[in-house]
């Protein structure tokens, strides 16, 4: 169950459906979403959407501002999906590959040639 709160405007069924559809896309990743919460604010002519979702490995948070409410909801959903993708595939990423110099590449001939040039 997604908790949707708003102070300035009423959460209508189409707004609720749009938010739930974005969270359904997150559920496709087969990760348990813990306490999803969406806050909708209206600041002058902009809509500000904030969403926080707990996952077993941590917490996801995203916010977006846009003139169109539905575009802001979509932007928040995309940001959450990107964070979730990054969190899921983090163990697969090879970030710290050690660079080992192989003796074949450097070889011992290089050192001997270097000494000969300066020895003369």
Q: How would you describe this structure to a colleague?
A:
- The structure is a single chain.
- The protein has 120 residues and is an alpha+beta fold.
- It has a single domain, classed as Double Stranded RNA Binding Domain (2-Layer Sandwich), CATH 3.30.160.100.
- It contains four helices and four strands.
- A four-stranded mixed sheet has the order 1-2-3-4, with helices on one face.
- Strand 1, helix 1 and strand 2 form a beta-alpha-beta unit.
- The chain is elongated and about 80 Å long.
- The protein starts with a strand and ends with a helix.
- Keywords: Stress response, Translation regulation.
- One of its GO terms (molecular function) is ribosomal small subunit binding.
- Belongs to the HPF/YfiA ribosome-associated protein family. YfiA subfamily.
How do the helices and strands line up, and which of them pair or pack?
Layout: E1 3-6, H1 13-27, E2 34-43, E3 46-55, E4 58-66, H2 69-89, H3 103-106, H4 109-119
Parallel strand pairs: 1-2
Antiparallel strand pairs: 2-3, 3-4
Helix pairs in contact: 1-2
